Amino acid sequence: MNYVPEHTVDPTGHGVPAIRIRGLRVVRGPLTVLDDFDLDIRRGTLTGLLGPSGSGKSTLMRAIVGVQQVAGGTVEVLGEPAGSKPLRDRVAYVTQAPSVYADLTVRQNLRYYARVLGAPLSDVDRAIEQVELATHADHLVGRLSGGQHSRVSLATALLGEPEVLVLDEPTVGLDPVLRVQLWELFNRLAADGATLLVSSHVMDEAERCERLILLREGMLLADDTLAGLLARTGAADAEGAFLELIEKAEKKEAGDR
Ligand SMILES: Nc1ncnc2c1ncn2[C@@H]1O[C@H](COP(=O)(O)OP(=O)(O)OP(=O)(O)O)[C@@H](O)[C@H]1O
Questions:
Q1: Residue 100 DSSP class
Q2: CB of 200 shorter than 6 A to ligand 1
Q3: Which of 14, 91, 196, 205 has the fewest CB neighbours in a 10 Å radius?
Q4: Residue 215 lies in a domain
Q5: Looking at ligand 1, which residue's alpha carbon is closest to its atom 30?
Q6: Is the pLDDT of residue 14 over 80?
Q7: What DSSP string describes 57-99?
């Protein structure tokens, strides 16, 4: 795993990873979803979080934003405990569940969230434009398509220019053109210094991230660049690399039994 060596941690906080997880254990119902889980994510990076359904992606994201009860270990974001007060305006989280009001327009929703977050109202139009919804700014959210609706949720995460954005499948239900535009936006935000962790089921989207994390049954199967993954597996693309790694893990498990 790519740990940031301790000596790079400086008192100014610039050397502290955006996200630092050590020995995380999460139990949900009868299931241990994450166990002794370690991860570091550098600031100003766009990381793709991939893995089969049920592998623990949402659980990991919930732990990072501090809404998941944890059974052990530590999760620090920007050098502070996950979910703590100093992180309130610095970390944005968009879940798969709709979080905006159907009976308000796009602009009214964003003005409301800007007020709640203490973000300047001038952020509202910028965020609407960033998610390509300027033509629908005065439409009621309840009358928007599924993809437009999820983009309104995404726009709320862009208010106040958070330093860390945790986005759970933000491109589900979007057409290919919009997906490309949103990944370009994510890359721009990272280039401007934000740290993004974005989950996805779509493998060609993975190729738009500088770093990829692959989860399987709560285990970190890979944490590498796309080039690193392709070199390691000999596969032609991210999908092939992940299938190869999953197959290898399954064979190892069968051999261990
Ligand atoms: N509230 C809950 N109570 C009990 N088990 C849960 C709960 N929520 C999730 N789980 C279980 O935890 C495991 C990880 O779920 P999680 O939602 O983190 O996976 P995921 O990788 O995000 O899946 P998907 O891609 O389908 O959203 C799954 O086995 C799931 O069934």
A1: S
A2: no
A3: 14
A4: yes
A5: 54
A6: no
A7: HHHHHHHHHT-S--SEEEEEETTEETT-GGGTTTEEEE-SS--
In a domain, 187, yes or no: yes
Pick from 17, 24, 5: nearest CA to 78: 17
Cα-based distances in Å from 209 to 14, 110, 129, 184, 221: 22, 28, 22, 10, 17
Which residue has the least CA distance to atom 1 on ligand 1?
A: 28
Q: How many domains does the chain have?
A: 1
pTM to 2 decimals?
A: 0.89
Residue 147 and residue 10: Cα distance in Å, rounded? 42
Which atom of ligand 1 lies closest to the CA of 215? 21
Which strand (E) or helix (H) includes residue 116?
helix 106-117
> Per DSSP, which regions of the chain are E strands?
19-28, 31-41, 46-50, 72-77, 80-81, 91-94, 164-167, 195-199, 211-216, 219-224
Q: Does any ligand 1 atom lie closer than 6 A to the CB of residue 33?
A: yes
Does residue 168 surpass a pLDDT of 70?
Answer: yes
Atom of ligand 1 nearest to the CA of 62: 18
Mean of the per-residue pLDDT values for the chain?
89
Residue 59 Cβ < 6 Å to ligand 1: yes
**Is 138 in contact with 106 (CB distance < 8 Å)?**
yes
- pLDDT exceeds 80 at position 48: yes
- 22 ligand 1 Cβ < 6 A: no
**How many whole angstroms separate alpha carbon 47 and alpha carbon 220?**
14
Q: How far is CA 59 from CA 31, 70, 108, 171, in A?
A: 12, 10, 31, 19
Give ipTM to 2 decimals: 0.96
Any ligand 1 atom below 6 A from CB of 54: yes
Task: Judge whether 216 lies within some domain.
Answer: yes
Domain residues for the domain of 65 are 6-90+162-256
Cβ(55) – ligand 1 distance below 6 Å:
yes
